[in-house]
UniProtKB/TrEMBL annotation:
This is Transcriptional regulator. It comes from the Bacteria. Residues 559-569 have a biased composition (Basic and acidic residues). It comes from Thermus brevis. Residues 572-581 have a biased composition (Gly residues). Residues 559-581 are annotated as: Disordered.
Length: 581
């Protein structure tokens, strides 16, 4: 008996594997030789390989579509057995499933499933498969991540945690291409299987036994039971969880946004929140593109109706939402649900998890509804003495708000306390950075992108050995309905504030000593920094360089600044200068 069992096992292990190439002419190959079943038999095998176990009734309808379809299917199954010289499907099996010795391979050249378009009623299905598996030149984003993941091998569980628009499905498709695996969106014994919510209700043991490369898309917020069960049972060496953050400005600029002007690219990048699926949508439509909005509203349907309505009301508040506004907008009872499901985050106060999502929700409000909600929030904040936040709503209402702003914001936005002098630019001085965060090298200059209110970026510089004119040249983008992208220049003498917008050229007269650049607000910028020794008018004209307006940051009062053409005195006090018009 043992000998017979051993021989049977040996025969099973040595059984040849028949391949179904996905691309090019549909065919069956075994050790380089082609097996020739009928076209309908071949179509049946490919359908089972791509769609999994399927009932006889469904297959009969697809292949024949008439009253004798089931009888014809039985005849076709018999013909398949004759073509292979062995039983392909056990008698009575329903639904039919592909035998283990037949494998779909993501190989070949040309279109997928060539020759099966005219079989039965499969035309639409073949077109859908071609769209699903259309060879691509490669994603223009997350290339480093793809190179890293290309070393993984089946069986494996890869979890992609990301927000709407992060591109989980496209990344999984590209990974399947890189690994040479067939891409599926339902459970199969092999290939790359991409699953997203709602997840299939199948016994966990079936998934754990799978030889497939399983990619699970996970939404932010509370982890679903399906994921928790997988995580509890999958071996650590066969599993990896990745957080798909928005694309960096540099990665987007070199990929999806290549060839576009700065303002076009920066606008699409900011409004999409850096999400790769949304960037092309914002490039094509600069006012509320419908696909991202539909995705967002569909996902919001998982909220209770009152919580969803509260979320839409809260979209009139940018950044942190004061408790008075939460109360006035009727959101207090739903904060736990909104935070648990990932729409709001708490970081010393509640705010939208993503500013791009808040803006999309805001775009769905009618003008009258916006006015009412801004008025409710402004009134509550005025009673609480929260003038700075109230100013945001007064501005949206078209009312006077300037008097509610804090001094540094008035200085940046309104140009109060300007102190100017005329200086020529002498020889260039060396600028040495000592550190920074959120600002990255970009060619000969720097770049930065602040997508969320509360984010900051900075550059720290070594001490200037002498007085210098700091020149900032570049371009900036910020949405019109915001305070914009703000820059604070700080030194031992104090600080000054300005707003970066459009194509800008700012020249700042800095005293000796270290100085720091701090960026806040929201927006995208690319700029260069250079420092020059300042010269008087006379010296400038002698060298052929006309004098320019220079913002005197170290001046304490306007009257303390020397008249144009006079030599500047020693540095005095804290600067009250402002942005150059």
């Amino acid at each position: 008996m043992k000998g017979k069992e051993g021989n049977a096992l040996k025969r099973a292990l040595n059984d040849p594997v028949y391949a179904l190439p996905l691309f090019g002419r549909a065919r069956v190959l075994c050790q380089g030789k082609e097996v020739r079943p009928s076209r309908k038999g071949l179509a049946l095998l490919y359908y089972l390989a791509l769609e999994g176990p399927t009932s006889r009734a469904r297959l009969a309808d697809l292949l024949y579509g008439h009253g004798s379809a089931l009888q014809n299917l039985r005849v076709e199954l018999h013909r398949l057995g004759q073509a292979f010289g062995r039983e392909v499907f056990p008698k009575g099996q329903d639904p039919l499933s592909l035998p283990s010795w037949l494998k779909l391979e993501a190989s070949g050249h040309g279109e997928a499933l060539e020759g099966l378009e005219e079989v039965g009623s499969l035309w639409e299905w073949v077109q859908e498969v071609r769209a699903r598996h259309e060879p691509a030149p490669g994603l223009p984003w997350r290339q480093e991540l793809l190179r890293e993941l290309s070393a993984l091998r089946s069986p494996f569980l890869l979890v992609l945690r990301g927000r709407i628009g992060a591109g989980q499905r496209a990344l999984a498709q590209e990974l399947a291409r890189v690994l040479g695996l067939a891409f599926h969106q339902s459970l199969r014994p092999e290939g790359l299987i991409y699953l997203e919510s709602p997840y299939p209700q199948v016994p966990l043991r079936e998934i754990l036994r799978s030889k497939a490369f399983l990619v699970l898309s996970l939404d932010p917020g509370e982890d679903p039971r399906f994921f928790l069960e997988l995580r509890a049972h999958y071996p650590p060496e066969r599993m990896r969880v990745l957080e798909l953050a928005p694309l960096s400005w540099l990665e987007a600029r070199q990929g999806l946004l290549a060839g576009h002007t700065f303002q076009q690219a920066a606008g699409a990048y900011f409004l999409a929140g850096g999400q790769p699926e949304w960037i092309p949508e914002w490039l094509a439509c600069t006012t509320s593109p419908q696909r991202p909005l539909a995705q967002l509203r569909l996902k919001a349907r998982w909220l209770s109706e009152p919580a969803r309505v509260a979320l839409e009301r809260l979209s009139v508040v940018s950044g942190f939402i004061p408790e008075q506004a939460l109360d006035a907008l009727g959101a207090l009872p739903y904060l736990e649900e909104l935070e648990r499901k990932g729409w709001l985050v708490y970081q010393g106060g509640y705010r939208f998890a993503r500013e791009a999502e808040r803006r999309l929700f805001y775009s769905t409000l009618s003008p009258g509804r916006r006015h009412e909600l801004h008025e409710r929030a402004a009134t509550a904040l005025a009673l609480a003495g929260r003038g700075q936040v109230e100013a945001w709503h007064r501005k949206a209402l078209g009312e006077s708000y300037e008097g509610l702003l804090e001094p540094h914001l008035r200085e940046a936005l309104l140009g109060e306390g300007r102190v100017w002098a005329k200086r020529g630019l002498g020889r260039e001085l060396a600028l040495l950075t000592q550190g920074g965060e959120g600002v990255f090298p970009l060619g000969q200059g720097f770049g930065l992108a602040l997508l969320e209110l509360g984010e900051k970026a900075r550059l720290d510089f070594s001490s200037l050995e002498e007085e210098a004119v700091l020149e900032l040249l570049g371009e900036a983008y910020a949405p019109e309905d915001s305070w914009g992208l703000l820059l604070s220049v700080r030194g031992a003498w104090g600080e000054g504030h300005l707003r970066l917008e459009g194509s800008f050229a700012h020249r700042l007269l800095l005293p000796q000593g270290p100085f720091h650049l701090r960026f806040s607000g929201v927006g995208v910028a690319e700029f260069t920094l250079r420092a020059y020794r300042p010269r008087s008018d006379e010296g400038a004209f002698r060298t052929g360089k006309a004098p320019v307006d220079v913002w005197v940051l170290a001046a304490k009062k306007a009257q303390e600044v020397p008249e144009q053409g006079e030599k500047k005195g020693k540095n005095q006090g804290r600067g009250e200068g402002n942005v150059h018009p």
